[in-house]
Amino acid sequence: xxxxVAAASFTLGLAGTTLAWHADTYYAISVHxxxxxxxxxxxxxxxxxxxxxxxxxxVSNRWSRLVWINTRGGWEVVHDSKAxxxxxxxANTNWVKKLHCRNISAIGYWASCRGHWYWDPNCV
Length: 124
What we know:
By secondary structure, the chain is an all-beta fold. The chain has strands at about 5-10, 20-35, 40, 50-55, 65-70, 75-80, 85-90, 95-105, 110-120. About 0% of the residues lie in helices and about 60% in strands.
């Protein structure tokens, strides 16, 4: 598994009360996903919370599945799409989760999968 920070930004909320870093992290870069094959991220925590899961395929019109997985291995959020670029975000990030992207088409393809997360630099 390869992880790389693609972009990062800093947000300071009203009256300086909210302090957070935002980043897009690739948990799979240019991997070939055979039929039924998937890749996943590490679990998040209260200091670094995933809030978006995205896949970019080298082709369109082939099915992919984006999944949010809880610590019991259960699939909490599932998003299927034939689009070349597809993503799903969640508003409630207050639970431990990891991201997963999977090829659910009948033909393999190349893909990159990334997550967007918030990180609190004051967290210990």
